[in-house]
Amino acid sequence: MGLSYLSTRGGETGVTSSQAILKGLAQDGGLFMPTEIPKLDVPLKELAGLSYQETAYRVMRLFLTDFTEDELRSCIARAYDEKFDTEEIAPLAKVEGEYFLELYHGSTIAFKDMALSILPHLMTAAARKNHVDHEIVILTATSGDTGKAAMAGFADVPGTKIIVFYPKGGVSKVQELQMRTQKGDNTSVVAIHGNFDDAQSGVKRLFADKELEKELAAAGYQFSSANSINIGRLVPQVVYYVYAYAKLLENQEIEEGEEINVTVPTGNFGNILAAYFAKAMGLPIKTLICASNENKVLYDFFATGTYDRNREFVLTSSPSMDILISSNLERLIYLSAGRDTEATKELMKELSGQGAYTVTDEMREFLSDFAGGFATEDEDAEEIRRIFEDTGYLVDTHTGVAAAVYRQYRQRTGDETKTVIASTASPFKFSHSVMEAIKGREAVEGKDEFEVVDALSSLSGIPVPKAVEEIRTAPIRHNMECGVHEMKDTVKGILRI
């Protein structure tokens, strides 16, 4: 019997992995979770030396049990190919005794490529498997990276359309240009007048709109999601933590069974949740260090047990983390409540109604594997500058937050456990902020994005990534904007229904 999935809120059970990937979000608004987190079925020393693709197969087959070996291997081979500019797919760089897991070598130079390169292949295989005759409409909110990576993955994939909403003025210039220049007859991107949480909440409302669902079906469409709420996004992210541990073993940096810490810059909680899944599978992870920027809703949650989004939304230089509703946290809440779907549903109702909830002492005890921290804008910039001046290694603004929070954690606890830091985006994606951090405001003042990109390349000796070069002269293809309450009409207009 294969692994099955259920909604964190109890409304759907007995769902196969392919059905969960196709649906994206459960009908009751919950997120799909496997009935158990499977254990790794090979010794870690056997994973050392395996390619990224082979590691991916060994991990993903345990979750996606209704995919055949041929289907899964085909999806993996087509995802992790020459789109990545390094053979390792996810290189591990040792810097000052820490290990930066570089997750930004894909076609859009952000960690979202690691999962969104494979999701379109998983989804089309799932559609064939489930005899889906509707066109799949991928509906996604983005804080900057998911949108571009999803559009790049789904561009011109037969049987799909993709519509992306992003907050106008809430992403970097490179992020915006990457989205607005995206090719593909089936791609649409819309700037909304609001922040990421507005976009994400709006997308969830559209998923829950039963009247719209009927209209879509009548027109031959069905919604699915490329956000990290989709289990098809989360499972591929588990792979790179297993790969990183195996690489440390292979490089004789650790001994088999030795514990490591993992630090992740966190917004929607998917990336660090994937690390938690890896730990639950048997990977020896001691502490999961959850790094927030000035939107420190997760830091406050781990410190107090109360999740409260009723606060000022801060626009920072690490926009992919500018989030006050961390959707994937619901999966951890479900686990911490002993898989109690009613308790999870009640807490999510409180979040929706009052904007806050408080977990029980028993649930807080379950969360003791996590340590929260946050870095201010100044601390982030200082860490980027310090790492570059001391080592010549260049990190982006999100990785700077993670590195600063890890430094605080080590000073606070004295914990010298070897640590992997998830490096989630190329510094060239946030060149203005990175250059300003290293050389001061005068180095960027009055300069356009590409002048700064070239200066950063010259300073660091790192070639400008292909993904940035491509948008230097690419024509703008997407100009749509709408208010938050116009999202439904905008979607219907794009689909002509």
What does this molecule look like?
Helix 4 packs antiparallel against helix 6. The protein is globular and about 60 Å long. The protein contains 22 helices and 15 strands. The chain is α/β, with parallel strands linked by helices. The strands form four sheets. Strands 3-4-14-9-10-13 form a six-stranded mixed beta sheet, sandwiched between helices. Strands 8-5-6-7-15 form a five-stranded parallel beta sheet, sandwiched between helices. It has a two-stranded antiparallel ribbon with strand order 1-2. It has a domain of 258 residues: Rossmann fold (3-Layer(aba) Sandwich), CATH 3.40.50.1100.
What secondary-structure arrangement, pairings included, does this model have?
Layout: E1 5-7, H1 17-23, E2 32-34, H2 44-47, H3 52-63, H4 69-79, E3 92-95, E4 98-102, H5 112-116, H6 119-129, E5 135-141, H7 146-154, E6 160-167, H8 173-180, E7 187-193, H9 196-208, H10 210-218, E8 221-224, H11 231-250, E9 260-265, H12 270-280, E10 285-292, H13 297-304, E11 306-308, H14 329-336, H15 341-354, E12 356-358, H16 361-366, E13 370-374, H17 377-391, H18 397-413, E14 419-423, H19 431-439, H20 449-460, H21 466-472, E15 480-483, H22 487-495
Parallel strand pairs: 4-14, 5-6, 5-8, 6-7, 7-15, 9-10, 9-14, 10-13
Antiparallel strand pairs: 1-2, 3-4, 11-12
Helix pairs in contact: 1-6, 3-4, 3-11, 4-6, 11-12, 17-18, 17-19, 19-20
